[in-house]
Each structure stands twice: as structure tokens, then as C-alpha cells.
Design a protein that fits this description.
The complex is a heterodimer of chains A (about 110) and B (about 120). By secondary structure, chain A is mostly beta strands. Chain A has no helices and 9 strands. In chain A, the strands form 2 sheets. In chain A, strands 1, 3, 4, 7, 8 and 9 form a 6-stranded mixed β-sheet that branches. In chain A, a hairpin with a 6-residue loop joins strand 3 and strand 4. Chain A starts with 8 loop residues before the first strand and ends with a strand. Helices cover about 0% and strands about 55% of the residues of chain B. Chain B is built from no helices and 11 strands. In chain B, strands 2, 4, 5, 6, 9, 10 and 11 form a 7-stranded mixed β-sheet that branches. The N and C termini of chain B lie far apart (about 40 Å). In chain B, about 40% of the residues are buried. Classes of the chains: A mainly beta (about 110), B mainly beta (about 120). The interface between A and B is medium-sized, with 27 and 22 residues.
Chain lengths: ~110, ~120
């Protein structure tokens, strides 16, 4: 049960856009439209930001958007703000394995 | 307001056992799949197990199969994780989470720390 692959870090200046990738296989990301993204601030529980590839839960700013192409999903944060600095994790349905997570990406707002 | 409150974490020796509990409130507990997700210190998230609304289906990550048992009591509005034969690599913060749609988690507890060490 291999984790999905995310870059360990990403960064951008306030107001800029940044995209975080999440690469899996045809058995998880590529095989289903069930990719989620979570934001986690230090010492806090994760927060759902995106589900089913591109849907936003109520209360999540529209600056956060998700997409998928083949075996790679992406989270884009537009108009970066200081409070967006956090760890971001992707997850995907993987058939017989209900959920597999990515290794996480630390987003730094410069 | 949806709330999930975990308890039962602590220090346990390798080979020991621990039972985690998660008290739910603010939603119809019996209508949702529920999961346990863990995070080792300084590491990423790992899904551990989930359970269907009526407890009739349960799934586990390979690394805990045969050692951990997820259960629920809808009358007590609670989720449980019985952990046996604990190993050092089970050391983590354990989160209780409400399943959302497919493979999503929309509400999380604050977590409870399990430390396996001699």
C-alpha cells in the first residue's frame, strides 16, 4: 500500500498562485474521481479542503481548487494568504484499500 | 455543531494493548461510516480502519490487520479502536474522523497520542 507522491515543499508570495501535485497510479488517483485534499496547521487536526477531485465543502474559500489529469491530481491555491501556510495532504480511494494518503507538502508563504 | 472527542491514549509497552474511544455529538452518528486515521510524530497521515454505519463491514490497513479491531456502539454514539500487540511503529496521534462521500473525511477529532515504548 504505497502512499501517493507529493512534493515535500512548495512556496509562493502573498497574492500569487501555487499548485501542489499528487501522483498515484491507475489503481487509485487515475482510476477514480475520489481525490480529497486536507490542510493541517501545526498541532491541529486536518481540515477537508477538496473532495471528489474538485468539490469544495461549505466554508472553504474559492481560492482553493482541485483538478486531475491521468494519475496526477493537483491542488491550486490562488491569491496566497499568510494563513494558507500549512501542510497539505492528498488522499484517494484505491479500491480494496479504502483510503491512501500522500506524504504531505509543506506550503510556505514567503 | 459536530464534535468528535477521542480518549484512551497513553504510554504502553511493546506487545501491550490499548483501547481508544471517540465520543460523537452534533450529528446522526448511526448514519455515517467512521474511520481512525493516525499520524506518527513528524510524519504524514495514514488511514487505519473504517466501519460501516451498522458495524457490518470493517476495513483495515494491512499493517494493523489481526492486531487492531474497530467497533462502534450507536446507542452510546461512540467509536472504538482496540489495539493489541502494539509495536513501536504504532506510535502516533490517532484521529477519529467522519467519512464523507467516498474516501473523504469531513470532521476530525483533536486526536489522542499513543506512545509504544519500553
Amino acid at each position: 500500500q504505497s502512499a501517493l507522491t507529493q512534493p515535500p515543499s512548495a512556496s509562493g508570495s502573498p497574492g500569487q498562485s501555487v499548485t501542489i501535485s499528487c501522483t498515484g497510479t491507475s489503481s487509485d488517483v487515475g482510476g477514480y474521481n475520489y481525490v480529497s485534499w486536507y490542510q493541517q496547521h501545526p498541532g491541529k487536526a486536518p481540515k477537508l479542503m477538496i473532495y471528489e477531485v474538485s468539490k469544495r465543502p461549505s466554508g472553504v474559500p474559492d481560492r482553493f481548487s482541485g483538478s486531475k489529469s491521468g494519475n496526477t491530481a493537483s491542488l491550486t491555491v490562488s491569491g496566497l494568504q499568510a494563513e494558507d501556510e500549512a501542510d497539505y495532504y492528498c488522499s484517494s480511494y484505491a479500491g480494496s484499500i479504502p483510503v491512501v494518503f500522500g506524504g504531505g507538502t509543506k506550503l510556505t508563504v514567503l | 455543531e459536530v464534535q468528535l472527542v477521542e480518549s484512551g491514549g497513553g504510554l504502553v509497552q511493546p506487545g501491550g494493548s490499548l483501547r481508544l474511544s471517540c465520543a460523537a455529538s452534533g450529528f446522526t452518528f448511526s448514519s455515517y461510516w467512521m474511520s481512525w486515521v493516525r499520524q506518527a510524530p513528524g510524519k504524514g497521515l495514514e488511514w487505519v480502519a473504517n466501519i460501516k454505519q451498522d458495524g457490518g463491514e470493517k476495513y483495515y490497513v494491512d499493517s494493523v490487520k489481526g492486531r487492531f479491531t474497530i467497533s462502534r456502539d450507536n446507542a452510546k454514539i461512540s467509536l472504538y479502536l482496540q489495539m493489541n500487540s502494539l509495536r513501536a511503529e504504532d506510535t502516533a496521534v490517532y484521529y477519529c474522523a467522519r467519512d464523507w462521500r467516498v474516501a473523504g473525511f469531513d470532521y476530525w477529532g483533536q486526536g489522542t497520542l499513543v506512545t509504544v515504548s519500553s
